[in-house]
Write a structure and sequence with these properties.
It contains ten helices and 13 strands. The chain is an alpha/beta fold. It folds into two domains: 206 residues, Lambda Exonuclease, Chain A; 65 residues, no CATH class. Strands 2, 4, 5, 6, 7 and 8 form a six-stranded mixed β-sheet that branches.
């Protein structure tokens, strides 16, 4: 991976950006399993060609610094411990931020946006926590609970004062108890994902199944009832016919088509230039 410095930032910041491969070949971390197979395989194949600008990686530095601070604190837990379990011909790995021996609780530190909290977008955190719990179980350690401590990097005190639905603190805790049913379900997910990745490894780039809508953070296409002089939509509809039928009733003057967007592909995927799905969508 090549780190560019288009904004001419200090060398110290550029050097702080990690360029190491996240996984060794045949190893898949807990967080990698949450990505689409296309993204994972293309990242491995084109790692040395990927370019990322230092300015776009600033939150990576913030997250690394946060983990470093809490890693040094003394409490009744072990920290930054790595686990690895063989699954089929691959290895599933995980590096746990902290595990409290007394309460049998996994603790994971996160830097997050307020948006994630407001929309209760925790599915990826839950899966990550359960994969860690499954890994620990294979090593003979019981996990009763997972706690994610999120530091909200864009929290606003003024918004918190004026909006009761807004996170009231710049620190948010998302926690859940771990059940046997959870561990059985996550084991099925892990084995299914490994099977998918091992099959994708045999295929050419253009043959790999595209990432799912969820993995691409995709929104469906919409038809917006608009009114001349107004910038925002009066109402959004899933099909053009309904939008046109409702336009006059809603006081609209025209219907605007809004194509589906895959937000991760557009703004956060580093391998979209090699992805057949992204290339075909742009065409």
């Amino acid at each position: 991976m090549k780190i560019t410095n288009n904004q001419k930032l200090p060398d110290a910041l550029v050097q702080a950006i990690s360029t190491n491969r996240h996984n060794e070949k045949g190893c898949y971390s807990a967080t990698t399993l949450l990505h689409g197979s296309t993204e994972t395989i293309l990242t491995e194949r084109h790692f040395d060609e990927i370019e990322v600008d230092a300015a776009d990686s600033i939150w990576q530095v913030f997250g690394t610094a946060t983990h470093s601070i809490f890693e040094k604190q003394n409490d009744n837990s072990f920290k930054e411990e790595s686990f690895s379990v063989q699954v089929s011909n691959s290895k599933v790995t995980g590096r746990v931020d902290a595990y409290n021996l007394e309460t049998e609780t996994i603790i994971d530190w996160k830097t997050a946006s307020v948006w994630k909290i407001q929309f209760a977008d925790f599915d990826d955190w839950k899966k990550q926590g359960l994969i860690y719990a499954w890994l620990l179980k294979q090593s003979g350690l019981s996990v009763k609970r997972c706690e994610f401590i999120a530091l909200l990097k864009d929290h606003s005190k003024s918004k918190a004062r004026n909006d009761a639905s807004y996170p009231q603190s710049p620190v948010y805790k998302y926690a859940f108890d771990v059940t046997d049913a959870d561990l059985e379900e996550i084991e099925r997910f892990i084995k299914g994902k490994i099977a998918e990745l091992e099959e994708a490894e045999k295929l050419a780039d253009w043959e790999i199944k595209p990432c799912s809508n969820e993995e691409r953070w995709a929104s469906g296409e919409k038809w917006a009832v608009m009114k001349t002089g107004r910038k925002t939509a009066i109402k959004l509809f899933d099909d053009e016919k309904t939008a046109n039928e409702m336009m006059s009733k809603l006081g609209g003057t025209y219907v605007e088509h809004r194509p589906a967007e895959s937000r991760k592909c557009l703004d956060y995927c580093t391998v979209c230039k090699w992805c057949p799905f992204w290339q075909s969508m742009n065409k």
